[in-house]
Amino acid sequence: MAWWWPLLLELLTVMPTWAGDELLNICMNAKHHKRVPGPEDKLYEECIPWKDNACCTLTTSWEAHLDVSPLYNFSLFHCGLLMPGCRKHFIQAICFYECSPNLGPWIRPVGSLGWEEAPSGQGERVVNAPLCQEDCEEWWEDCRMSYTCKSNWRGGWDWSQGKNRCPKGAQCLPFSHYFPTPADLCEKTWSNSFKASPERRNSGRCLQKWFEPAQGNPNVAVAHLFASSAPSWELSYTLMVCSVFLLFLS
């Protein structure tokens, strides 16, 4: 047996523990996120659930609620006013994305998927975070009669006047036209930041984009589960490089 096999086996043994630790209770490297999560004296309305341990500040939580948010100069009202329930779901999703310290297992470097460019200040993003079935269904039900002109909101807008406007030729139609199913809404709106999970709330296997603060954060246990089941991309890459190097030495 080659001398390096015991070393490689030891790496395989300890790597999941390293990965699990580094994927928990972290903030992504993004424009509006804090470097590390921590308590906030106050957060605004739909962002309150993360008050005890947040990746967002009070200012970020307030800006998430504005009709044209300074976070990304993005208007939810590009096809007129949204139904109140629909608007609430989007604000909750923004708070979840900006404030949650439990998205570590789904954080990836922007551009790592090969089809996107990094916005200024945005080093990382979330990919395929599994939202609970009820989250997607309720979001879709409350938005299906509101109007939009695109299915992918991460790009392709007309920014000529400083905020997003529908691109030329795009029609404002009910959400149900661009998002025929709850899964379409959850997954397509922000280019697969979220994934529609078949799991239900309180299963311990899906994330809730909002929760009652008094009942505790259910996403902590979900992050632990997913962090322990798969190594992070950084450590997987490191192991691959080490393996190739050891093969070369042999």
TrEMBL record:
GO terms for biological process: cell adhesion; fusion of sperm to egg plasma membrane involved in single fertilization; sperm-egg recognition. Residues 1-19 form the signal peptide. Keywords: Disulfide bond, Signal. Pfam families: Folate_rec (PF03024). The keyword Cytoplasm does not apply. InterPro entries: Folate_rcpt, Folate_rcpt-like. Residues 26-208 form the Folate receptor-like domain. The keyword Signal applies. GO terms for molecular function: signaling receptor activity. GO terms for cellular component: external side of plasma membrane. Belongs to the folate receptor family. PANTHER family: FOLATE RECEPTOR, SPERM-EGG FUSION PROTEIN JUNO. This is IZUMO1 receptor, JUNO. It comes from Piliocolobus tephrosceles.
